[in-house]
Amino acid sequence: MLSSKDENARDFPFRTPNQFHPPCEHAQLRDGEPVARVRLPTGHGAWVATRYADVRRVCTDPRFSKAAVTAPGAPRLIPMQRGSKSLVIMDPPEHTRLRKIVSREFTARRVERLRPHVRELTEGYVDRMLRVGAPADLISALALPLPVTVICEMLGVPPSDRERFQGWTDGMLTIGAPALARADEIKTAAGNLRAYLAELIAAKLAEPSGDLLSTLGRAHADEGRLAEDELLTFGMTLLAAGYHTTTAAITHSVFHLLREPERYASLREDPAAIPAAVEELLRFGQIGGGAGAIRIAVEDVELGGVTVREGEAVIPLFNAANRDPEVFADPDTLDLRREDNPHIGLGHGIHFCLGAPLARLELQVVLEVLVRRLPGLRLAIKEDDITWQEGLAFARPSVLPLDW
């Protein structure tokens, strides 16, 4: 819990009225207190790291453990059960074993084969937007259904079940004070999602196919590489993380392009610049603050001029690191043609986003289709009028209306 050194600590997660932009604490801490104490809604103290070098180190130094956050009384921001078998909170060798089972499905080469289908889906969603007419909500019309459909097809989950599982996954990815207030509700949601996937996987074992849930089912039932708890938790993680990150990334990217219309126009005039623009949008955007990346020191570690004691928590803030002027020239400027861009918007180290190639592809396709089909696209809401869904680990507005 809180100690005497936390008396003047800041509350975390940091709050900002407009989550398209970083909270002021990022720059303040990065400039003056790069590894700083914060107070978590649970009452625990923790450290946050804001500089690029320190964030990368937290993600690669084995003395900072992901699995240790499941221990009784450990600081945390996302609800989790003791001994959880989720891939995102495992250390090697368990993490290595589980990730290897599906990693080949997410290689850049294999994901690239999906590009024509993702483009076809995107064209269909834009067709629907045009039929219904403006204004259209970017999130419900495109940014949410596209990644949901893609990950569901890969996993073998019926996209028609989205209304059933979306509320459950939203609960799983709720952080901070909202998660504490809804703890029982979130626990129930996780149980419902678990039961749903157990039933679905059982059906796939009876009639095997080539989707990812069938692969996981075989790894459990036939090959003995997955325990039942690992199987179900792995499926839950792939489904939840498989679209929330990309939904947020599409939403933030389109907003930043339309906020300054010449940005969008530049891609319309030169679509070949879209891949580089996607990397810059991933650096610049605020899609995930790093709250789910919390780790526990398993021994005393010197980090950024302070000593992180054994058992203390550290949260690497990727968004703050991506604005570090020691690494990025003019970091608060969105430069769509930035050439030197070693951003960590999709994580770093062994927990680098498994679906990064898929997220990149979906973002590229969405922007390619939008600038071609909707050259006059513009925001249909004032920035100050945007409202946000509270507590989501991957921040997105309630709606983002667009006109054309």
From TrEMBL:
CDD domains, from UniProt? Cyp158A-like
Region annotation Disordered: where it falls in the sequence: 1-27
Q: What is this protein called?
A: Cytochrome P450
The scientific name of the source species is: Actinomadura algeriensis
* SUPFAM superfamilies noted in UniProt: Cytochrome P450
Q: Which Pfam families does the record match to this protein?
A: p450
Q: Which family does it belong to?
A: Belongs to the cytochrome P450 family.
Taxonomically, the superkingdom here is Bacteria
Regions of compositional bias (Basic and acidic residues) in chain numbering? 1-13
